[in-house]
């Protein structure tokens, strides 16, 4: 029986429309009982295109023309869903319409909720549910026609979402006071959300977006799950009292209403940090009046103060009119470290000169002072000695420094010398006051105090055990207590091959810090057993030690799991003579090592877990090599050897 397909363009003719045979199987006509005769100019009419005995139905495209102008194009027999996709909140009502351009025998919907029985004589049918409660619902619209080869069906994609019950943020595995410069992990817990693969976690510090994290799930489930997201932070003192927060956002596509993000209550962190002075030296005039030594500095917990000379009271501010000339050293300390500031009280005549030096000093090419060597690189705790030479008569020549400050009158050379340099903020300045113009001049010593790291280590982030081929993993290299970090280059190696290097030139602290670098890898099977390591190198320039100081981490050997691959996967056809036995080889490479299963002509399945099998008879042998990640199969066809053919003979 021919299968009619209706292609119904609306025409408003201004000329006569003729019945016409397009091909032997395609006929254009007025729809009986719909189009009256004669056709009247300006009114609407339907034309029907009958296409008979064609297959496959879903590949038919009907084009309707008026003269040479295409008026409508239709894909025959296709099912159209309106809307084409549903995005709904759990428990909400659902509705979708299914339509077709043919006249089917039956039309219906199959679904775990709201099925619609097959209905005859319709070209559209609506699926309706009052309250959607099936997470993995897959509504199916179908039509039945006379020829079963041309049945049509289509699934309606439905996404059911649920906003999380709760979102919370916490400090992972650590409730102590956070220490400046160390690495910590914050965790955002999202409870009872679906679908989890559509969840985006936004991390903020105050109002600044730090990270957008796509939450992934190895489970292919559409039901609500609990999920977490993590953020690595390395706080400093400016972060004390800062608010961190996370929010869970469902990205559901253009078809769905976007529910508002669900925020967590903010986490306010308290950062512990040592005292650190902005200026480590201060010059004061001895004018015979009250002198105030103000050593106040911020620290958490608050600093305690000690002075040298020791007879001064342990408090941040000393005010007295009886302080003598010389240096007064204040040390501010708490349990996380200490810092020192030196107050120098000078005679008025020298200080008057020095004050003018500060306000009106010259430097650079016009300065007649020369520092030798001009740049010094010193290891922490090592001795240092630098000379400053004036090229013309000088009234006062000296060094301003937290340690080793001194001056001389009339001598053309002055030496700055420290037996053990341990002041990280040391900035020695040579100054001169001359009898002739320019009368004041200064040169700053380019001093680099360095320290090699206490340790360097490499580890996997948020993962233990073997890796899986093709998945992404993160390696973390941590360097403890190194300075100055802006000279550090951290290199990543796989075996002897450098794969990445990380510099820290954007950082500027002079004191030792802890830094880290991450490496994203997607291991393949060839990397099974490969050692990864990182190396920290302080590249301090030609004045520094040669070769540059370098510390290596212990290697991290990675294990990679991957599915079996047969050494020879192609089907083999083997000829077997009478009385012969042949060995079939199904060896595969995989990690974990694969197990083998054979099916033979005599046994449906063999328990032999071995890649080699003796085949004594004709037939089809199938081998399956499998492990937890996948499987591969191979077929051997054993057939009798042709008569008159022996080993080594050729078929002509």
UniProtKB/TrEMBL annotation:
Database matches in CDD domains: Ig (cd00096)
Coiled coil: none
Superkingdom of this protein's organism: Eukaryota
SUPFAM superfamilies in alphabetical order: Immunoglobulin
Listed InterPro entries: ICAM_VCAM, Ig-like_dom, Ig-like_dom_sf, Ig-like_fold, Ig_sub, Ig_sub2
Ranges where the record places region Disordered: 215-238
One of the protein's GO biological processes: cell adhesion
Gene Ontology molecular-function annotations: integrin binding
Compositional bias ranges of the Basic and acidic residues kind: 215-225
Annotated SMART domains: IG, IGc2
Segments forming domain Ig-like: 164-249, 266-344, 453-537, 564-639
Name this polypeptide is given: Ig-like domain-containing protein
